Amino acid sequence: MSLFNHKYPGILLLGDSHTEEGGFFEGGWGLRVAQHFTRMADVFNRGFCGYNARFVKHALPDILANLPGIDVAVVTLGSNDSAFPGEMLHVPITEFKESLISITKELLNHNSKVVLVTPPPILDDVSTLAT
Questions:
Q1: Side-chain half-sphere of 99: how many Cα atoms within 13 Å?
Q2: Cβ(43)–Cβ(9) under 8 Å?
Q3: In terms of pLDDT, which residue wins out, 23 or 33?
Q4: Would you state the torsion angle of the CA atoms of residues 52, 99, 67, 115, taken in this order, to the nearest 10 degrees?
Q5: pLDDT exceeds 90 at position 127
Q6: Which of 80-84, 89-93, 124-128 has the lowest mean pLDDT?
Q7: Distance of CA 118 to CAs 3, 67, 75, 78, 104, Å?
Q8: What crossing angle do the helices spanning 53-65 and 93-109 adopt, rounded to 10°?
Q9: Given a cut of 90, is residue 25 above it in pLDDT?
Q10: Of 27, 39, 45, 55, which sits 20 to 30 A from 94 (CA to CA)?
Q11: Residue 66 and residue 7 in contact, taking contact as beta carbons nearer than 8 Å
C-alpha cells in the first residue's frame, strides 16, 4: 500500500469564532490538535466567526458534503447563542438545545464520534471589571 493512497481519519473542528480564531493561528487549540495528529489524521477547521447553533445547523449538510469522512467532530458553540436577548445572534436556550441535538444527530448519522465543548464563561456585569 502506498503511503499517499492511505486514508487518514478525519477530525472536524466545528463552531464559531472560538474555533475559527482558535484554530490554526499560532498557539491556537486547533493548531495544537493538528500538530498532535500530524501524519495520523487530517484536521479540518470549520469555525465561522459570528455563527451560532442555528446557522451551523443549516450549514452542516453542505459542510459535510464537501469533506471526506469525519471520524471525530469537535463542536464548539454557544458563545454567540448566549448573546443578550434582542441582539442579532441570540438564540433562545430551547432552540439552542434543539439545534445542538440536531447537529449531534447529523454528525452521528455520518458515523462520527462527537465531542461537545462548552463556551468559555462570560461576565454578565462588566462594571465589576477592574480598571
A1: 22
A2: no
A3: 33
A4: 90
A5: no
A6: 124-128
A7: 37, 24, 9, 7, 14
A8: 10
A9: no
A10: 45
A11: no
